[in-house]
Amino acid sequence: MSDASELLSATGTTPEQVYTPQEQPGWPKGNVGTLDEYRKRYKQSIEDGDVFWDKAAKSTLKWTIPFTTIRSGGFEDGDVSWFHDGYLNACENAVDRWALKNPKKTAIIWESDEPGQHLHISFSELFKQVCLVANVLLSFGVRKGDVVAVYMPMVPEALYAMLACARIGAVHSVVFAGFSADALRDRINDAQCKVVITADQGVRGGKRSQLKKITDEAVAECPCVERVLVFQRTGDVLATPFHAGRDRWWHEEIAKQRPYCPPTLVNSEDPLFILYTSGSTGKPKGVLHTTAGYLLGAALTVRDVFDVHSDDVFGCMADVGWITGHTYICYGPLLNGATTVVFESMPTYPNPGRYWLTVDTHKITQFYTAPTAIRALRRLGDAHVAPYKLDSLRVIGSVGEPINPEAWIWYHEQIGKSKIPIVDTYWQTETGSIIVSPLPRVTPTKPGSATLPFWGIEPAILDPTTGQELKGNDVTGVLCLKRPWPSMARTVFGDHSRYLDVYMKPYKGYYFTGDGVTRDKDGYYWVRGRVDDVINVSGHRLSTAEIESALILHPRVAEAAVIGVNDDVTGQAIFCYVVLKETPAEAVSTLSTSVARMPHPDGPDGLKRMTQELVQQVRQHIGPFATPKRIVISPDLPKTRSGKIMRRILRKVANGEIKSTQEEEISKLGDLSTLADPGIVAVLIAKVHS
Ligand code: 6R9
């Protein structure tokens, strides 16, 4: 955070173009009618929060035992609770209500990796499948409060697994299927999962991933795991290891069960799930969400930010392994009784028209993706969009990172045909659901701005150095929230003091998001990106410390510093500076065998091999999505005399802001007088830019 002021001062100016919403013939009446209505309801949600949330919770969710208390606790001790004497079941809310009312209606459309292969799953079928899996989990001894790891590809069974946990009051911990065995192992052990649910293989972009093999590798170091439940996605039994004592096949287990399982009575504040996310330190945090407040945030944002009506088909292209998948593939759409799309493939498979083919095929009404996908598709050209009608769309959304105006305008013109509103939705794993966003057909939009806060969200912009709130418009600082909201994370699993340290303590009395933000002259919010050591690669949150820890595990690495560099497609990319241990050639053979095989790192071949090994090291420790873009092996890092790495130097050199050692370039680095060895700057510039 020490670099926050510097990061914020580097942000650009705000373009002024405003897009005013237009009414379209034939569209249903919006859930929020006008900007005045938004302002009125927003005002009530802040000034008369108890009345607002009481009504919202009662009209949106089905309560088994209604609540009488609306909110208690606060940021200071991190003891926030909402509706805490109420009881309900998340699965009953997402599934049973609609299975009873409209059993034949499609709950899930599965678009498989191969175009043309899709499935429609009705609410009654979803209900049955979820009950079967819930009974399987009960038969494995899973009980209320137990944590179940879910390591699944994008198949409906991933949702069945999550909802089955919710049904019996178990806590799901979904681990993105792109994570490596090491990362999966750490997450399983942290939450002491007894059961892991996975698949034989994943299929994406025509390629298979070995999920069960990876799970086996992880579970070999997880003494807590008693059972592994394996769904057959490909049925390639020869390629799938199976340990008869511990493993069970999904299809065999559900065949033994009754397709009804009563929902467990769950308190509003009982945990619903844990989701690990990267923070400023190397160890991922198990962000814990509870039941009622989370469900309310998911349901209301789908209804109002996406203007969902009951016959809508909600197409969120995220992966269930991330918060966006939890809230906008699984819970949010289903809580509204809408149809949700589970998309197994990728935007460019088998060609860059895949998203648009999917929209037309399933008549998707709300389409939600990340700026990185929009930028990549824009680059590939408009010809891939041209063959598609896209006339079912009513709202298109963006999430995960700031969207640059060029990408916004392309999305608006090419996908939105210059008439469909874009919702640039700002939120985080910790916020549970969207907190700043336009409302479609209501809020005038400006490309690149997430615009205005959602119900009950009171943003505050603070000066990062003094912690003073910057009131009024035309201010830039760090984004904090002033009051608790229902879907906020309640703790970090097993480490409440870390929760307090990261979110509540940096600015007393506020929740700290970790993002920099500008409030412009119209009161619109422009989220600038992280001011901490978190980088955002293709919308995936990664901690620089976590990547550094992975690099340091390599026997030859003495030190590593990782920073984010700007990238036209992925937003940011991983740039690593690595210092090697002294390894004289003659000493190499005495090190571990993998090291002994390597040539000495000083030669060009040695350097190339070393770099490849380091890339591999990060992929193996975290996952392929964390592949570094560049690794620079340097004799040292720029450090202060007290030994602190001066990251701003590394950042400026890597981003090409400083390319030569001419005095006027070097002066752009600011005060270097605290550097222990000022000579290192020229060495770094030469390494990076020669
Ligand atoms: C939902 C999600 C959270 C971080 C967040 C911020 C960035 C997300 C954004 C955005 C600008 C948006 N972020 N949406 N920045 N505009 N519309 O992405 O959760 O993975 O926890 O990441 O993503 O930096 O702090 P998560």
From TrEMBL:
- Enzyme Commission (EC) number: 6.2.1.1
SUPFAM superfamilies referenced in this protein's UniProt entry, alphabetically: Acetyl-CoA synthetase-like
Q: Where is each Acetyl-coenzyme A synthetase N-terminal domain found?
A: 38-94
Region: Disordered; residue ranges are: 1-32
Which GO molecular function, any one, fits this protein according to its record? Answer: ATP binding
Q: Which reaction does it catalyse?
A: acetate + ATP + CoA = acetyl-CoA + AMP + diphosphate
BP GO terms, sorted: acetyl-CoA biosynthetic process from acetate
Q: Which residues cross the membrane?
A: none
Q: Name one GO cellular component term.
A: cytosol
Q: Which family does it belong to?
A: Belongs to the ATP-dependent AMP-binding enzyme family.
Write the protein's name: Acetyl-coenzyme A synthetase
Q: Which organism is it from?
A: Gonapodya prolifera (strain JEL478)
